[in-house]
Each structure stands twice: as C-alpha cells, then as structure tokens.
Specification:
about 250 residues
C-alpha cells in the first residue's frame, strides 16, 4: 500500500505520462478491495495535467470519486501522503478541479479533528483556502468557504493559521460584498457558516469573541431582514448567542 502511495506522489511530481493502474486490478493485487488504493489512483489521475490520454472530464470524474471516498471518516483519517497532492490541486487552473479539491478538503475535515490537524500540518494549506475565498470563480469561492468553515469548527489550531494570514480581513470583505450587497444566496450562506464556526470556537478561544463583537451591528442588521426559521437567520442567532454568553464580552461591556 505504501509503495502505491509513493508511486502516486512520485508520478505527480515527475509528470509521468503513463496511465494509472486499474483500481480493480489493484484490488486483485492486494487480495481485496482497498479504498485507499483506489483513492491514490483517483488523485493521481485528477492531477495528471501533462498526460494527453487523460481528459478534463476524466480528471473531474476521478476527483468526484475521491470526494465520495473521503466523506468516509476512516478514509479521511488515512489519506496520509495524499494530502500534499490534494492541496496542490487547489492551484489547478481549472475551476472545476480546484473547486472539487476544496470540497474534498471540506468533506475530509468536517467534524473530524484528526483531519483538521492533518490539514494544519500542510504548510500554506489554510492560506491557500482563504485566498480562494476571494476568488472570482463562484465555484472556487463557494467550496473554499465550505472548506474554511469545516476546518475552523472547534479547531483552535486552524484558527491560529486563520489569524496569521489576516483571515478576519478577508471575512470582513466578504461580509460587505457577498452578504450585505451580494445576490448569490449560496455564497451568502457559506460566508455566514464561517462566522458560525468561529462562534463555536469561543468555548476554546475566548479571544475570538473580541473579534466577532466588531461584527455585531452587521449581524443584527442582517437578522432584521431574515424570516423566522431561515437558515441564514439561524446561523446569525447562533453567533449572537455565543457572543452573549462569552465572558470576555461581558467584561468589555461592563
């Protein structure tokens, strides 16, 4: 298994043009179906930009399959040396590929602390995700916000990297465009999901409350326009509730 993973990484780094092995044959080779082996092949194929025998549609299909696999927490916890390849795909010039890579990251780290820490250990990965939150491509932007929201949830280590690359400034810009002025409801919801994840972090990092308090007037303004029970309204209510119970906020207001 390890040899196969090493082959996949080396093939990507050296631009090998040979077609990837058949996952079914790999299953036979290993004596039983091996999802991680299939995932390594899928990721290699998705990364094959120099192979004239592999089309964009095939790359997308293989990365979609990888995404489906990584939704399984056991698979997500064991992708190991596949992480650098997945992170590299964030910079792919094809928005469909970059978006799927971001979506796969979001699926891997969602409610999964081990994968969140694995992401943290990939140098520059969180910064790449945040930069794509301001992409001109709606596909990239939407999936980057999903990945960031999933990564931040109850993970102080990701938050440290978020603050280090001026994530609050990016989020403020998004609030003023995609939320306050934007017309894309999906992007609006994704931005508010990031705020929601930050609100949940107050339990672990009290300093988050100090930053979130700066956005309180905006949250209250948005809430006035929301219908009862709306998804966006519920996210804002959650954030405001977290702020209300945060000790640093009470001290600041006294």
């Amino acid at each position: 298994m390890e040899k196969l993973l090493q082959w996949s990484i080396k093939a990507q780094e050296e631009g090998m043009a040979a077609p990837p092995p058949d996952p079914k044959q790999l299953a036979i080779l290993f004596g039983a179906p091996d999802e991680l082996a299939e995932m390594a092949v899928e990721l290699h194929t998705a990364s094959s930009t120099q192979n004239e025998h592999i089309t964009l549609d095939q790359r997308i299909e293989q990365l979609e399959s990888f995404h489906d696999h990584v939704e399984n927490i056991d698979n997500a916890n064991n992708i190991g040396s596949m992480w650098p390849v997945l992170i590299k795909l964030i910079d792919d010039p094809e928005p469909e590929i970059s978006g799927l890579a971001l979506s796969s990251i979001g699926a891997a780290v969602q409610n999964n602390r081990k994968s969140q820490l694995d992401l943290c250990n990939q140098e520059g990965a969180v910064a790449k995700i945040i930069s794509k939150c301001e992409s001109k491509s709606v596909i990239e932007k939407k999936q980057a916000l999903f990945a960031l929201s999933s990564a931040l949830s109850h993970c102080p280590e990701v938050y440290d990297q978020f603050t280090a690359v001026k994530g609050w400034e990016v989020l403020s810009n998004l609030l003023n465009t995609d939320v306050m002025k934007g017309t894309n409801s999906a992007l609006r919801t994704r931005v508010l999901s990031v705020f929601n994840s930050l609100g949940m972090l107050i339990e672990d990092r009290s300093d988050v409350a100090i930053e979130l308090k700066k956005f309180k007037p905006d949250f209250e303004k948005i809430l006035k326009t929301e219908e009862d029970g709306s998804t966006d309204g519920e996210k804002i209510i959650t954030v405001l509730s977290c702020l209300q119970t945060a000790k640093p906020i009470r001290l600041l207001e006294e």
